[in-house]
Design a protein that fits this description.
Blueprint lengths: L1 E3 L4 E11 L3 E2 L5 E2 L4 E16 L4 E16 L2 E16 L4 E12 L3 E2 L2 E2 L4 E14 L2 E11 L11 E11 L1
Antiparallel strand pairs: 1-5, 2-5, 2-13, 3-4, 5-6, 6-7, 7-8, 8-11, 9-10, 11-12, 12-13
């Protein structure tokens, strides 16, 4: 059964932080530097949602964030918008989500690691579970990449992040 809301609705806010490790990436790309990152984020429920009477199903979300990405002494401001598909419970007590969107970053050269330019694609996958209402705890894998828009010599950044989420 499809449920359509008329507009986006803020359903959660949160904070997350994490790191990458210099060396091999899960995506097969060599990380030339180690990174840390953290941000504040909001999650909006988008109009298309399909949930059964049991409360399980799929829905669309939009995640927006503002935060920092750093490598040793260099720090960059990052903002992003990522549309996602979320599978799980309608009340978000448990969810698995994936999405692809875009980010703007204030610096793109970090030591020997060059992201290419200010625009980055963002690929993300996460899982969260309710700790105690209204709090969820989650894990997120996040990948920034220019998708070779700025050339073939650039590198993406992978972050493994822990999230603390407050649901409305």
């Amino acid at each position: 059964m499809a449920d359509r809301c008329e507009s986006a609705e803020l359903t959660a806010i949160g904070i997350r932080g994490g790191a990458s490790v210099k060396g091999e990436s899960p995506l097969g790309e060599r990380m030339r530097e180690s990174f840390t990152g953290g941000d504040l984020f909001g999650i909006f429920r988008l109009p298309l949602n399909w949930y059964s009477a049991s409360g399980w199903g799929a829905g669309t979300r939009l995640m927006s964030s503002v935060g920092l990405l750093s490598e040793q002494e260099k720090v960059a401001l990052v903002t992003s918008l990522v549309p996602m598909v979320s599978l799980g419970r309608e009340d978000d007590r448990f969810s698995v989500n994936v999405g692809i969107g875009g980010a703007l970053i204030s610096a793109h050269r970090f030591g020997r690691h060059d992201l290419g330019g200010p625009f980055q694609f963002v690929g993300t996958a996460g899982v969260s579970i309710e700790l105690a209402r209204p709090w969820n705890l989650g894990y997120r894998f996040q990948h920034y990449s220019d998708g070779t828009v700025y050339g073939n010599g650039t590198r993406g950044v992978d972050l493994h992040m822990i999230e603390l989420i407050y649901r409305y």
